[in-house]
Amino acid sequence: MPQLNPGPWFAIFLMSWVVFLLILTFKVNNFNNLNDPTSQNMKKNKPESWNWPWI
């Protein structure tokens, strides 16, 4: 049965995963992160208390 011969498709399978894991991950990692967590103010502000005039 020729479909069980791993010779023709196994190399294509491995090379496609090499392309996927090496080249595409570098391209994805080069995108800029728009929500940079280091640029935010880390000081937590106290919330203002509510004024309840009927109490």
Please give a quick description of this structure:
The chain has one helix at residues 7-29. The chain is mainly α and 55 residues long.
Walk me through this protein's architecture.
The structure is a single chain. The termini are far apart. The protein is an all-alpha fold. The model has no long low-confidence stretch (mean pLDDT 77). It contains one helix and no strands. It is 42% helix and 0% strand. The chain is rod-shaped and about 85 Å long.
Write a concise keyword list for the protein shown above.
single chain; mainly alpha; 55 residues
Summed up, the helix count is 1
* Strand-pairing-aware structural class: mainly alpha
Question: What share of the residues does DSSP label as strand, in percent?
Answer: under 5%
Main beta sheet = none
The H/E string reads H
Helix content: 40-55%
Give unreliable regions as ranges: none
Rg (CA only): 28 Å
Termini, distance in Å? 86 Å
**Nearest-integer average pLDDT:** 77
Q: Please provide the count of β strands.
A: 0
Detail the topology: elements first, then pairings.
Layout: H1 7-29
